[in-house]
Design brief:
With about 80 residues, this protein is an all-alpha fold. It is built from 3 helices and no strands.
């Protein structure tokens, strides 16, 4: 028997990040390809294999639910190591 005791708000997943020593021009080129994969047949095949429909750019504001979840988790359960 399964009993749901906690549900989180929707949170971003499958993030892609670049290190700060990667040239910005390369980051922009890769981002352009990734954010447009859903517009090509080949890209849609790759996305389908990943069980994704598309990638979307994110901002720091998109991660507010993650920070909120972690604060609540640590307050109720304990620190995340």
């Amino acid at each position: 028997e399964l009993k749901v005791i906690w549900e989180t708000d929707s949170m971003p997943d499958n993030s892609l990040m670049a290190r700060d020593d990667v040239p910005q021009e390369l980051v922009d080129q890769v981002a352009q390809v990734i954010f447009n994969m859903h517009n090509t047949n080949e890209g849609r095949v790759v996305l389908k294999a990943m069980d994704l429909s598309m990638f979307k750019p994110a901002s720091n504001d998109d991660y507010v639910p993650v920070r909120t979840f972690l604060k609540k988790y640590e307050a109720e359960i304990g620190p995340v190591n």
